[in-house]
Amino acid sequence: MMAVVDPTLEFERELHESGAHWVVGCDEVGRGAIAGPVAVGVSAVLARCDPHPDGLRDSKMLSEKRRETLYPLAQAWAHASAVGLAEAEEVDRLGIVAALGLAGRRALVHLHEAGVRILDSVILLDGSHDWLTPAMTAAPKVVTRIKADRDCASVAAASVIAKVHRDRMMISYDEVYPGYGWAGNKGYGSAAHFTALGELGPSPLHRLTWLH
C-alpha cells in the first residue's frame, strides 16, 4: 500500500529565500477528459503564512466529500487563489498543451486582479513540462517539479481548488445537457459516458477531436 505523503512548504520556503515575494502553486485538472473545460488552479502564498489546512493533499488522493470540505479551507489559507478555464472548443482548436497555457494565463490574470504581482512571483508548476511560459506575453519565472501536487502545499491547494471548481461546473451541466452522467463521470470517458455518446451523439461540451 502506497504511503500517504503530507505536503509541506519546504520547497516554497526555498523559493522565497531565493527572492520570490509570492510563490504561486499551479496545477491542472481535466486534461484527460473527453468533455468539458480544462482547468488550471493557482494558489499564491507569502513567506509568512499560516500552516496549511490539516489533511490537505493532491486532489487525486482525496474523496469528493473530503475535497469539498477542504475547498473553502484552501481558499481561505492562500493569500489569493483562482481558476482559469479553456473550453472544449479551445482544446479542439488549439490542442491540449496550448489550451492548458491559455487556462493558466487566465488564472494568473485573476490573481493579478486580486493584487498578486505576477512578475514578482515564482510559479511552481506540477510536472516536468513548462506549458505555461509559451502562453505568457511577459513571462514570470516558472519552476517545474515532479510530484509538486503531492509534496508542495501551495500546489496541493491549487489542485483541490481547481478540481472542485471544475467538478461543480460539470455537475451543473447535468440539467443543461442531460443523459451523459456528468455528475458521475465529470466529463471523463467512463463506459456509461461512451454508451451515452453512442445513443445521443456529442454535446457542445465534448472535445470532438478526442472522439475520433
TrEMBL record:
Residues annotated to bind a divalent metal cation: 27-28, 126
What keywords appear on the UniProt entry?
A: Cytoplasm, Endonuclease, Hydrolase, Manganese, Metal-binding, Nuclease
Q: What cofactor does its activity depend on? A: Mn(2+); Mg(2+)
Q: Which InterPro entries does the UniProt record give?
A: RNase_HII (IPR022898), RNase_HII/HIII (IPR001352), RNase_HII/HIII_dom (IPR024567), RNaseH-like_sf (IPR012337), RNaseH_sf (IPR036397)
RNase H type-2 domain location is 21-212
Query: Which Enzyme Commission number(s) are on file for it?
Result: 3.1.26.4
Q: What class of enzyme is it?
A: hydrolase
* Catalyzed chemical reaction(s): Endonucleolytic cleavage to 5'-phosphomonoester
Task: Tell me the SUPFAM superfamilies matching this sequence.
Answer: Ribonuclease H-like (SSF53098)
Q: Where in the cell is it found?
A: Cytoplasm
Stored Pfam families: RNase_HII
Cofactor, free-text remark: Manganese or magnesium. Binds 1 divalent metal ion per monomer in the absence of substrate. May bind a second metal ion after substrate binding.
Q: What does this protein do?
A: Endonuclease that specifically degrades the RNA of RNA-DNA hybrids.
Family to which the UniProt record says this protein belongs? Belongs to the RNase HII family.
- The protein's name in its UniProt record: Ribonuclease
Question: Which species is this record about?
Answer: Frondihabitans sucicola
Q: What is the lineage of its organism?
A: Bacteria, Bacillati, Actinomycetota, Actinomycetes, Micrococcales
